[in-house]
Structure formats: structure tokens, C-alpha cells
Amino acid sequence: MAPSDLTHPAKPETLFDRDAEWDALVAFSSATRTGASLGVVSGRLRQGKTYLLKALTAALGGFYFGAQPATQAESLRRLRDELTKHTGASPPNHWRGWEDAVDALLALGDARPVPIVVDEFPDLVRQSPELPSVIHSAYRRLRESGRNNRARLLLSGSALPVMHRLFCSASPLHELADLELTLRPLDFRQAARFWGIDDPGLALLVHAVVGGTLAYQQYSGDHAPSGPDDFDAWMCRAVLNPRTPLFLEAHHLLQEETDHWDRALCHSVLAAVASGCSTQGEIAECLDTTLTEASHCLALLQANALLHGEPDAFRPNLVRLHITEPLLAFEHAAIWAHRSALEQKEAVEVWRHIRPVFDSAVACPHFTQVCRDWVMDFADPAIFGARPATAAHGSLPGPVHRADLEADVVVRGPVGASSGALLSVGMARWDEVMDVPHLEHLRRLLAMLGEDVAHTRLACYSGVGFAPKLRSAEADGDVVLVGLDRLYGVDSPPGRR
């Protein structure tokens, strides 16, 4: 069957998951309505955007062009050569500039709906800032000409701040966009399936290192640990091995995402966050720098989606920061101080020294974040009495000279009639069998809250299990217990979740 006859081609078997993204792109690209359309595809590096867009153009007989950092003249020459190869027509003697190039691209849609992909669009705009206005003018001319053009132009990019600026409300391209699609990393359940890991504990450990970025499987040698007993050996041969691409990936990722910025400061900021500093003030104090200087770096990392700020569940004016990319959190919490040792000694020796740090500073906070993700993405709303709107860390100031009272997973409902009702307060412990004292801690915290807690559910989340008395409390309806099997949606024997 010719590509033009494919109204909704099946997603390629080699493309893992991404069902919704594939359907959205196919629907946009093959829509028969008259008029050229514009779509935007964004997402951080290594998420599979290029693979997805190449598969789309192959399935629908479209055109793909991957931009590179180059001068305008070189980019135009490459585009002209690839367009000529695609159409088989004689190339124009010379393009006067992007006006001619954009007109030639859109002309591909004169005969039928066709996807036209320009990947890494920000690389072109850096050398040709006028390009967004050129595209806007080309679309206006098409509308005024009355041509039955059905070009489906897709502009893709990994530089998130640039993509946001190019398609914000003040941009000439904003009003043209009919599709805005963001490719995000796989969630923790999808990642377990992608890596082929059935054991939830092992899946969480691997996810704490590589997250849901598809490319990292290839970077680690295309294989996962064979089982829980193989995790340490896998770390040494696939992650901490200087001969594998994953070894320096955290460094390359930060270098690519932050462009020409002060990378030393960015590394130090991430190391401070990974060590437990979660507010701007704590980070500035840890780095012995001004709040202004720290704030600029934090804003950059947040704009590139490497850091995320979230209001404290009990003190909303207090914004807590966490690293969104697990590989960066792993790097700066456990590996950063041992890089030179890894290049000089056997990985097994260094990892033996690092492993306790990994367990406490990487696996524990990652488990807590996965518990929050489970609440938002997978938990049945009936568990907490309503659909959650937020799941975050919460803290109350402790008595004088005492630590704050904290809860790891505070669940609130939607703001409205219930005004962000407090649905649940919970503790998460990766490496502790949880028991009645954990429940008592939650009850004390609940008693100190100055809000309606009549319907608030207490919850305990554990990576290793629950004591019999806590199981009895669960049976009495006093607490919600969530273990690894429940997090990963794994069927388990009665009494074990």
C-alpha cells in the first residue's frame, strides 16, 4: 500500500509505548481539512522525538529535515539538497533565503495532507532569528492565495526555553499552532516494562539511576540487570564503566541543556539539591553565594525542566525544589565526588564505598517521589475519597530546638468546593519495615494541623513491608498501606501489597 493511502498507519513495533503521541501526530498529519497547519513537538534530549518523527514521515510519505548548529547558508544548502532528493525534482539554482525555502516546504502539501518535519528548529533560529516571522508570513500568503494547500508542518526542538519563547503568546507562531505535543520521559511503570524488569524493587533501583529516558538503555549496553542480585554488578559494568556512554551522560546532558551558562555553578547547585537543600535560601547558604546568583542558576535549570519547584503542602509560600532527571540526581548525590576514583580504580571497589550513599541519598528520596507519582497517576480516587490534585512534601515548624514535623506524601483534592481538602497524610520509607510508631507520628502531625482533617486518610508507603500490627490497623480502616507491588500494579497474594 502506498504511503498516501495510509489514513491511520499502525504504530511501528519498534516504537515503545507513545500510543497517544503517535495517534495525535497521525491525526494531525493526515487531517483532510483545507489549509496548512502547524504543529509543535518539544521535549528534553534523549526522549525519542527524532525516532518518533522519522517513523511518522516514513509511514505517511512525509519529509524530515534534521537541523544542526550551522550557518544559515549551510542549513539552506542542506535543506535544498534533501528536499531535492525527496521530490526527485530539479533543484532551484539558488534560494534567496528562508522565504524561498519555507515556500518550497509548504508546497509539498499542495497535492495532499503531508507531514513536513523540521527537527531541532531552535538550531535554525539561533542563526536566523527572522525565521518565525518568515513562516508566519508564508502561512498568511497561503491563506490569501486561496490555494488548496494541506501542508502539516511540524517544528520540533529539545531546547525547552527556546521552544517556549518561540511559541508563547507574544510569538508570531503562537496563533498558527494547531498541535502542541510534549514528549516526556516514561513513567516508572512504563520504564519497568521498557527495561523488561518484573521485580518491583529492582525496577525502582534502576529507575532511580536512569529514570524513564529511552536512550539510556542503549547507552548502558542494551541490557538490564538479570535480577536483584545482579544490580551491583550491572552498576559496575553498565553505569560506572568509563567505556560506556552512560558514564559521562550526566555531564553531557547538563552541558547541552545549559548551553554557555556557568556549568560549574549549575553542577554545584544540583549537588546542593541532591544533598538535601530544597529551598533557594538553603542552596545559596550551602554554596556560600548570594541569593541573586543562586536564583539565576535555579531559574535556568527550571526553564530546562531539570529542576522543579513545588509548594510545601502545609506552608504554600515555601517552595521546595527537586531534580527531575534521576540520572542527574544520582550523579550529584552519589558519583560527583568519586569521578576521579572511578577513572583510576576498579568500579567494584568504588561502588562498594558509594553504595550506602546511593541507598540513603538516591534510592530513598526517589522512592518517595515515585509514591507521589503513584498517587497522581495510578491510585484509584476511592482510596483517598476524591481525585488528587497535588501530592507533595509537607512540613510544620517543630517546637523550639526541635526538627520540623514532616510528611512525605501529602495529598490534597482540587481547589473548589472543598478548597483543596486534605485527603491524605503519609510517610514513605524505602528501607524500613513500617510499624505502629510511624502511624503514631502521622496522628501527632494531624493533630497539629489547623484545618479540617475529619476525612483525611493516613498512609504508609514502604519498600520492604509492614509489621503485623500495622496490617491489623489497615484491616480496621485506620491506615492505607502501599508497598512496591501496589506501586507497580503487580498482583500479590492476599495480605501482601
From TrEMBL:
| Listed InterPro entries | P-loop_NTPase, WH_DNA-bd_sf
Spell out the coiled coil positions from the record.
Answer: none
What is the name attached to this protein's record? Answer: ArsR family transcriptional regulator
| Source organism of the structure | Streptomyces gibsoniae
Q: Which PANTHER family match?
A: ATPASE
